[in-house]
Amino acid sequence: MPPIRILHVLGQMNRGGVETWLMQVLRNVDPARVRMDFLVTVAEPGHYDAEIVALGGQVLACGSPRRPLLFARTLARVLRTRGPYDVVHCHLHHFSGLVLAVAHWEGVPVRIAHSHSDTQEREAGAGLRRRVYLRWMETAVRCHATHGLAVSDPAAAALFGSRWRADARWQIARCGLDFAAFRERAPAPEIRADLGIPPRAIVLGHVGRFDSCKNQHMLVHVLAAAVKREPSAFLVLVGVGPLKAMVEEEAVRLGVRGNVLFAGLRADVPRVLRSFDVFVFPSLREGLPLVGLEAQAAGLPIVISDRVTREIAVVPELFTWKSPEERPEAWAEAALLAARDHREARDFVDTLERSEFALSRSLSGLLRVYGVAA
């Protein structure tokens, strides 16, 4: 029997949470039973592209969703010439409506809309044109999706509506991770030396794309407040994105640029997390940030926005919940207090691996949706 063929549709295969999860899925499926290709909306190569090809997949460019008619024609052509595909699995939130409509017209039997974000607050203030777009896409998802997956309750409501539980097609599907890398116990002083972090620093750390929803702009204000209390306070920011330059300029303006390490994209996030004393995450909106699971696997105390769903808290005692509307001084106080209590990373890897966020559970559930027998 030939392998089932799946086409994932998303922006670009870079080192983000969703992309890292998909790569872990790809590495762990049996290629004799499942083949995964990736249709991306960004022409530039992604960080995972070479590995995808090495594992037998394809990375196909489809153009920007900002040109929907051209996108639809290109997608239809891909489905005809590169297929047949058994599954189209779309990760483009509301734009899934158009993607799954085309897949339906082209005869793809399994069509999945996957919500990774809670956009409800942002979309509540949308203008008329945006509201028309959202309603059209939500209707298209309802008409053309055979399955709808969401990483959390808020993410489900954001794409499938507040009454999503009434439709049997919609379900929560956690993006599980492989936590094996967190069993490696390199000493924090060694990692800090490699990164150039002062050896006696109190390290506030963050991992995420530099984007307005991640709220890194607030983080440098938290650092400035922390430095006033504790001059050895130091901030490590892992990631890239369009707002990095603005965040760096703000650090300069506040006089704390020397206390910030912009670490860029890292392939060794589990190792870098070991250099932190506390993980700080002031996001304005999220679906369910996978890096929060990684921080727990690293045994870090976590000071986190109360706009993040509490479904993420596998180890509740690690969490301190704060409103992003609170003053940076309050965040700084909470972060320093958590860091002082963090003497040595505790081992919660077994706890994470027994949870619903384990890769094995995520993968088996996903394969059931795809129609692959256990």
Describe the secondary-structure layout.
Blueprint: E1 4-10, H1 17-28, E2 34-40, H2 49-54, E3 59-61, H3 68-81, E4 87-90, H4 96-105, E5 110-115, H5 120-124, H6 128-144, E6 147-150, H7 153-160, E7 170-172, H8 188-195, E8 202-207, H9 216-229, E9 233-238, H10 244-253, E10 260-264, H11 269-273, E11 278-281, H12 290-297, E12 302-305, E13 319-322, H13 328-341, H14 349-353, H15 359-370
Parallel strand pairs: 1-2, 1-4, 2-3, 4-5, 5-6, 6-7, 8-9, 8-11, 9-10, 11-12, 12-13
Report what the structure shows:
The protein starts with a strand and ends with a helix. The strands form two sheets. The protein has a seven-stranded parallel β-sheet. A six-stranded parallel β-sheet has the order 10-9-8-11-12-13, sandwiched between helices. Strand 1 (4-10), helix 1 and strand 2 (34-40) form a beta-alpha-beta unit. It has helices at 17-28, 49-54, 68-81, 96-105, 120-124, 128-144, 153-160, 188-195, 216-229, 244-253, 269-273, 290-297, 328-341, 349-353, 359-370; strands at residues 4-10, 34-40, 59-61, 87-90, 110-115, 147-150, 170-172, 202-207, 233-238, 260-264, 278-281, 302-305, 319-322. The chain folds into two domains: 4-176 and 358-370, 3-Layer(aba) Sandwich (Rossmann fold), CATH 3.40.50; 180-353, Glycogen Phosphorylase B (Rossmann fold, 3-Layer(aba) Sandwich). By secondary structure, it is α/β, with parallel strands linked by helices. Helices cover 40% and strands 17% of the residues.
Report the CATH topology name of the largest domain: Rossmann fold
Low-confidence stretches: none
Please count the beta strands (DSSP E, at least 2 residues each): 13
Full CATH superfamily name of the largest domain? Glycogen Phosphorylase B
Compute the average pLDDT.
94
Strand order of the largest sheet: 3-2-1-4-5-6-7
How many helices in DSSP terms? 15
Give the amount of beta strand, in percent. 15-25%
Distance between the termini: 15 Å
The value of Rg in angstroms is 21 Å
